[in-house]
Fold these 3 entries.
Entry 1:
Amino acid sequence: MRMGPSTLDTISVSLTRSGESVLFLQVDRDGRCKRVGDGAPGSSADYVSSVVGPEVFLALQKVVPPELFERSGCFALPEPVGDEMLLSIRFFGARQQHVVEFQYGADSAPPPATVQHFVSMAVALTDEWYLQDMES
């Protein structure tokens, strides 16, 4: 079975800046969510794990860019300027794993707009419970 948005059980996004983890989030079909950081330098101190229900996963699953399943591996974007960034997007499901990574400079061309939108949505969809759990 070919992996695609409908076969997913887990979606994971991580971002490192000069080797420092600044964002990690994982959302599972059964409603388990894990998150550390928000993508900003120095934001990786608070680890939060909760069961929030499947709605977050289902909403994120709907915005997975289909082209992410057409490529795999690490893509080094040309002429990186600034801190080294590594964005990793991992999909798990149907007894498979699919990984797409983008290596780029913080002050140079970022990953494609569809990828940026997907990562922004992943953060936005997990913000409410992440920020609430950090405060408690």
Note: The helical segments are 55-62, 113-135.
Entry 2:
Amino acid sequence: MPKSKRQPLSTEAQTFKRFLISAISFVACMSSIVYLNLLVTPSEIQEAAALISLALAVPSGSFALYCYIKLMLTRFNHFFKR
């Protein structure tokens, strides 16, 4: 059976894929902070793990926001061109 060639994704699809990945990583980092505070006894290890999660959540959240705004502007531009 021959392999079918995949079509390259459009710019909007690539942006949505990046938004989805960064939003999922943001939610995972923020939920790990919550679970660390609820389930782990207060210690330096808990604080270090929460700080690492927060350090990973900031760039992923800002990139998700950037991709969301880019998607919104692309859709508005497509809407107004019609």
Note: The helical segments are 11-39, 44-81.
Entry 3:
Amino acid sequence: MTQKPAKRSRVLTPGHGHHLGKGPYRRFDASPTADLFAAIVASLESAHHELAQAGLTEAARSVDEALQAVRGGLQENDFSTATREAARGLASFAAALAENPSGGPDQAAALPTPESP
């Protein structure tokens, strides 16, 4: 039995070879830097503050741990760790919001229910 020749696959590698579709093509330097992380750090600080004010101490602690790890990664120029920890902190904040849509234990009682005027 004869074997068919292997099909040739066309592989496009980033930055090399042909472009797909029509141009114009642009390239941007998206290398991670400490400046790019400034807004992410500010967002994590704000998230920590909001969670602490809402009385969600466990979630606030989780976001604070991630924030400290992001800062440590930035000091060591370890942007991979900083990115991973920032994602973990933002995920903790999102999970806390999903679990406590009213804003926390102390604010839940202050919110009006649909039955009350």
Note: Helices lie at 34-53, 57-75, 79-99, 105-108.
